[in-house]
Design brief:
- A hairpin with a 2-residue loop joins strand 5 and strand 6.
- The longest helix is centred in the middle third of the chain and has 20 residues.
- A six-stranded mixed β-sheet has the order 3-2-4-1-5-6.
- About 30% of the residues lie in helices and about 15% in strands.
- By secondary structure, the protein is an alpha/beta fold.
Length: about 290
């Protein structure tokens, strides 16, 4: 007889080792993770590679973070976004200044909306990927000094990286170490979910969404690794995800299985006093982090 149990509910044997995501996400967890990339920085304006270097937010970058926080504080406003209509369970950010400042501004908007944002917590696991000798340089400078290393990074990110920079497996290890306690805390005391419910959008009931949701404020590069880790994808899929400046991505966890519900939401940036960032797609294609 064919088993109706999902992977997270099926007993495991020695011949069937748990996948990375199955080890990372508590069995039965029902929760939501929101990924918010920091706002524009001066290095981005100058088209310099940032990596783990510090670069201050521009006025536009600060506005992007505020608008993102305002959007997260009103998820049912049109067009609605798929997060619970409640205060976040946790707000975690990269310790780099551009992410910390973006988290502070977003949390301020959540507090102003009466949502009582939790205390912010820095976690080095969500720091941007270190780009070694490339940091602070423009694309032309990198090509002149380091030849084919940048084209290799754009094509085969698991085989090529910046001289003196981090490898993707190194980043994955610290991302997993950061996600594990966060997800465990979100699962602690929560009601376990089940796969025995509709898995296709449009069939859900109208019951209030009481799941916990947490906000992670970080960077485009590390968020690509977060996506691969949660979705159990090989790191060769690194460039399959884009994260715009001030944009929101939403990963829903259903009974321990991660589902990408939204990627690169940017509608909250349109119509602001400052124009929305127009360089994200170009920068993502360049390989700059």
């Amino acid at each position: 007889m064919t088993s109706l149990l999902g992977d997270a509910e099926r007993p495991r044997t020695g011949e069937e080792p748990a996948s990375g995501a199955a080890r990372l996400i508590p069995a039965g967890l029902d929760a939501v993770l929101v990924l918010l990339r920091h706002g524009q920085t001066q290095f981005i304006v100058e088209k310099r590679f940032q990596g783990a270097m510090e670069a201050p937010l521009t006025a536009l970058g600060e506005e992007q973070a505020r608008l993102a926080g305002r959007r997260l504080a009103a998820p049912t406003a049109a067009p609605p976004i798929p997060i619970p209509d409640a205060a976040p369970f946790a707000i975690v950010h990269s310790p780099l200044g551009r992410a910390q400042r973006s988290a502070e501004l977003a949390a301020g908007e959540i507090n102003m909306a009466g949502r009582a944002a939790p205390p912010l917590r820095a976690d080095e696991g969500f720091c941007e990927i270190g780009q070694g000798a490339w940091e602070g340089l423009t694309e032309d400078e990198i090509m002149a000094r380091f030849g084919d290393s940048l084209p290799g990074w754009r094509r085969w990110p698991t085989r090529h990286w910046a001289p003196g920079g981090e490898t993707l497996p190194e980043v994955r290890r610290r991302v997993e170490a950061a996600l594990t306690p966060l997800l465990r805390k979100m699962a602690d005391g929560g009601e376990p979910g089940t796969f025995d419910r509709h898995q296709v959008l449009g069939y859900g009931d109208a019951a209030p969404d009481r799941r916990r949701w947490s906000l992670i404020v970080g960077h485009g590069g590390v968020f690509r690794v977060v996506a691969c880790v949660l979705l159990d994808l090989p790191l060769e899929h690194f460039w399959n995800f884009d994260f715009g400046l001030g944009a929101i991505a939403i990963v829903e966890i259903r009974a321990g299985r991660a589902v990408m519900r939204a990627l690169n939401l940017e509608s909250h940036l349109v119509g602001s006093a400052l124009p929305p960032d127009a360089d994200s797609a170009e920068r993502n294609a360049s390989g700059a982090l």
